[in-house]
Write a structure and sequence with these properties.
The complex is a heterodimer of chains A (about 325) and B (about 300). Chain A has about 325 residues and is mostly helical. Chain A contains 13 helices and 2 strands; from the N terminus they run H-E-E-H-H-H-H-H-H-H-H-H-H-H-H. Chain A has 2 domains: about 60 residues, no CATH class; about 230 residues, MetI-like (MetI-like fold), CATH 1.10.3720.10. Chain A has a two-stranded antiparallel ribbon. Chain A is globular. The chains are: A mainly alpha (about 325), B mainly alpha (about 300).
Amino acid sequence: MTVAIDRATGKRRGDREPGPGLGGRLKRGYHKHWYAYAMIAPVAVVLGVLVLYPLVYGLYLTLTDANSLNTVRTIGVNHIDATYKFIGLDNYADILWGPTAYDRFWSHFVWTIAWTAVCVALHYTVGLGLALLLNQKLRGRTLYRLILVLPWAVPTFVTVFGWRFMLADGGIINSALDALHLPSPSWLEDTFWQRFAAIMVNTWCGVPFMMVSLLGGLQSIDASLYEAAEMDGASAWQRFRYVTVPGLRTVSSTVVLLGIIWTFNQFAVIFLLFGNTAPDAQILVTWAYYLGFGQQPRDFAQSAAYGILLLAILIVFTSFYRRWLNRNEQQLAI
Amino acid sequence: MSTSTAPTPASAPVSKENPVKAPKAPKAPRRVRRRGETGLAGSLASHGVLTVASLIALFPILWLVYLSLGPDKDDYLHPGGIWDKMTFANYTFVLEHTKFFDWLKSSLIVTLGTTAIGVLIAATTGYAVSRMRFPGYKKFMWVLLVTQMFPVAVLMVPMYQILSDLKLIDNYFGLVLVYCTTVIPYSAWLLKGYFDTIPFEIDEAGRVDGLTPFGTFFRLILPLAKPGLAVAAFYNFLTAFSEVAFASTFMLSDDKYTLAVGLQSFVSEHDAQRNLMAATAVLIALPAAAFFYLVQKNLVTGLTAGGTKG
């Protein structure tokens, strides 16, 4: 799909002539690309200072026993120096193999994986279905589109409040279920139903992004392909299978990857829906936040260690995903 | 396909008041159906599914608005009673008794700051990555993707320390910088995709006519990339507007709270007063919705214009 032509020079990439030495290459590269680097510099600086440095520092914190009782702090007029010490990999060992590691890490881990898989699958299928419907010639489709994007346009914490009203014990959903003589579960207390509710709310919030992205992808599929398929007598299903699906491949692989990353790190929905009342419905991100900021004493080191583990999981996953895409000769849209 | 809407319980109460509108089929002579047109049954089914989906999308928001009109704190348990005693009292109470306008001001400063700075920086980055094959550009895109993966928990403590070293705690600019780190990577990705769809000949023409690389970018490419920029702005605005975790940690004085944090603190103070909570939530949703309708026209073209190019 990619036309491998260097857009700056018009040369074909890949078979460049043997370059000069490293120093000379750097110098030439600098002369040719200085403005590219200048354009990237602001991002590089901001990300370097506010993301990479904190990451390195956070990595260091995970090797210590820092918590809110032994870090630098000021009580009244007294400035107290940090007294935490280096303890090596003990935090990781404790999280992964320590006593009650199953309750603290592995149960959350399994739930996080299930949460990510279910949410992204629902986002994608519902989003694709709606996008296909909106891509037809249909009266009032602009209006439908406007309404369907609304869950994305309203800030998450507002909509989550709305859902809390609806899911509360005497809320509208349980009243409606009662009226239909169906059992009315306690959505915000029972573990299973908490998880169900979290997935439901997150699906509601996440579908619009998928829908709009896939709609954009659908609209960029060349109409003549459908025409040709129809001439050859392809049925609707065959047109979907052999024209639409391949046409959406690059968009799909990108939005699915983004969706997985965002859902895996989805903080707002679960945190706002349950606060600290649902220890078993916490995914790893909210659990790490709880350890570091939601309890006393705040356990910074463990919290950061969870964060690093999360990051490691995502990076491993992404590299496998990338390799899998490469094997199928698909391209991420980057 | 048409059944792929997830059956959420919200559809149960709304689907009753959802008669599928049956347009009267005109008694026209049989005509040949053209390509792209669906039969009557198909279009009825599409309308039905889309109407149900729209109702599901709308209902939680409308319900919140409706509840916010009830004057009593337990009204959400007896929603039927609200209809007779609707009042805007909750809104006036919230506007008069909280620092709503202070919060709105800080929210707007932080959000618009993030949007402006974020879009500008993301645009230069996206352009550089889209047009110039400098060494390491692909790695750079992956670095941007990886920054999306950082969980809040790792960054919070170190960021707090850096910001307090830079004297940026409790400071609008500090929060803007923090938000930029979260919004720029995706915006840059998005804009790179959009710039990829703008023909490279335009750049060449600009260069031939003597524009510098920056001149080409600002005077030719940016005006052409408006849909992409609008989507990036939308994304930045919403992300910054609804962020809670950083804002509640980094903003300390209560007249500098953003709306999201203000609502949180208001909730913990007036825990039982759900009618007031609902009213605050609606007030907060208004600026975001207004911004959304400003840019929504560009949403579909802007979001994936480039996503289809390899």
